[in-house]
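Hi support team,

I've been running sequence recovery on a batch of backbones for a student project. Most finish fine, but this one hangs at about 90% for roughly twenty minutes before it completes. I'm not sure whether the input is malformed or the queue is just slow. I've pasted the structure tokens below so you can try to reproduce it. Let me know if you need the job ID as well.

Thanks,
M.K.
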């Protein structure tokens, strides 16, 4: 599948949906602290999304029960929020999707809870650096597998192994 070029009005609608995702992720990033439950954080993000007239697009998708995927520590992806209370040293991944007027936004971040290990800091930095590398590398008509391969090489050069 090739990466499609979008019309300006489509880009504006995608931007609006993703601005809500970005706002919800920023809210979670700033509010994440030891003692908070994953369900509390999920509810906070869902309230934010709905207050901006969007729908949390993951909720109900394939039976997913929540607005936010919360991947704690070794959980790879799409974790379900629970009553677990965050502890100092945890790393929490938040993945949020929204739908606004038929257009979708989707993004994820990893957030350290207080002080984390040097290895966790390096992993978070690698993920962020890989995102910016991908943004700089993407071109109209590029195949997803080309971008994925470039990202994989970038990650491996930093001493990490991407999941498949």
């Amino acid at each position: 599948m090739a990466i499609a070029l979008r019309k300006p009005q489509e880009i504006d609608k995608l931007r609006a949906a993703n601005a809500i995702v970005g706002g919800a992720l920023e809210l979670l990033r700033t509010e994440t602290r030891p003692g908070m439950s994953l369900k509390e954080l999920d509810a906070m993000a869902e309230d934010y999304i709905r207050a901006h007239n969007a729908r949390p697009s993951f909720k109900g998708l394939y039976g997913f029960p929540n607005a936010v995927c919360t991947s704690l520590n070794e959980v790879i992806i799409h974790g379900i929020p629970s009553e677990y209370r965050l502890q100092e040293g945890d790393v929490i991944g938040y993945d949020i999707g929204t739908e606004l007027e038929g257009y979708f936004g989707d993004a994820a971040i990893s957030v350290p809870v207080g002080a984390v290990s040097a290895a966790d800091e390096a992993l978070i930095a690698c993920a962020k650096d890989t995102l910016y590398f991908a943004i700089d590398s993407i071109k109209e008509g590029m195949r997803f597998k080309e971008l994925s391969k470039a990202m994989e090489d970038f990650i491996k050069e930093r001493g990490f192994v991407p999941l498949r």
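--
Follow-up from support: It reproduced on our side and the slowdown came from queue contention, not your input. The helical segments are 8-31, 38-51, 118-137, 144-157. No action needed from you.
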